[in-house]
Amino acid sequence: MNDKARDENSQPEMLEGAKSMGAGAATIASAGAAVGIGNVFSSLIHSVARNPSLAKQLFGYAILGFALTEAIASFAPMMAFLILSVFRSKKESFSLKKQAPLSHNKVETAPC
What is this structure's pTM? Predict the structure, then answer.
């Protein structure tokens, strides 16, 4: 087996491995979001302990910080799914183009 044939056979497997590694790397953002949410509520607890009269206003800011941090965290699974579904190897895309359509019969409409 020559090198060219070996490279053509291993290309889809390498692409699948790269897609899995990319999707795994994209989900690391979930850990960052957890740390961010922990920091938001830790700061809330410290702020309320220092000045209890501002607890209601500080809680509103904490919820806003939580929502923004969680919104960033929602991009992690979205990117992982994009990486897994969008990138295809040349053989996969060629085989999809080669498939026959579902219906071979043309539907003709009657004249009005």
Answer: 0.58
